[in-house]
Design brief:
Pyrroline-5-carboxylate reductase 1, mitochondrial; alpha/beta; 8 helices; proline biosynthesis; 18% strand
């Protein structure tokens, strides 16, 4: 399958909950083998990095190693560390690579200005149900992302739930809806359960 072949190597700059969720989702979908994923964190002893190791993912504390090994690089660091990390790895970025950011509130322009000119960049915000391949993700892309790259992004996101392209000015609004919305549903379900207990049903 052509798309699966392009997904031979995936990198994660950062190994937090979202990176781990996406890695698990892509592995579960059969798009990539664990050994073809490389993830980085600031310390080899970080809890998140240990979780990545537990899934069979190659781990490192060297961000540049992640980029050198990967055809698709997911930017999954904390938003305030995105710029310095991108400046750090910029010398080893290749023109054929695709960068996909899940850093909340980080615009396409701010990503592109810290990478070599012409770098292909996508901004998206998955939610944690990607772990069970039921996530909802809206994405936006810069002008250098072509139709084949768009197909690749949709293949990745579609394998872990629902993926849809929208103009970037909707991104912050949709992030709040898809990221925080499920929490409100859980609060409602919990309140219904408490109501049942209050009415006399055993917990």
């Amino acid at each position: 399958m052509r798309m699966a072949a392009r997904l031979y190597s995936i990198g994660f700059l950062g190994s937090g909950k979202m990176a781990t969720a996406m890695a698990r989702g892509l592995i579960s979908a059969g798009l990539v083998r664990p050994e073809d994923i490389t993830a980085s964190a600031t310390s080899d002893t970080s809890l998140n990095l240990q979780r990545m190791k537990g899934h069979g993912v190659r781990v490192t504390s060297d961000n540049s190693e992640v980029v050198r090994r990967s055809s698709v690089v997911w930017i999954a660091t904390k938003p305030h560390t995105v710029a310095p990390v991108l400046r750090e790895i910029s010398p080893v970025v290749r023109r054929d690579q695709l960068f996909v950011s899940v850093a909340a509130g980080t615009t396409l322009n701010s990503l592109a200005k810290n990478l070599p000119e012409g770098t292909k960049v996508v901004r998206c915000m998955p939610n944690t149900p990607v772990v069970v391949r039921s996530g909802v993700t809206v994405y936006s892309r810069n002008g250098t992302v072509n139709g084949e790259d768009k197909e690749l992004v949709e293949h990745m996101l579609g394998s872990v739930g629902l993926g849809m392209e929208m103009p970037e000015h909707y991104m912050d609004i949709i992030t709040g809806l898809t990221g925080c919305g499920p929490s409100y549903m859980y609060v409602m379900v919990d309140a219904l359960a408490d109501g049942g207990v209050y009415a006399g049903i055993p917990k």
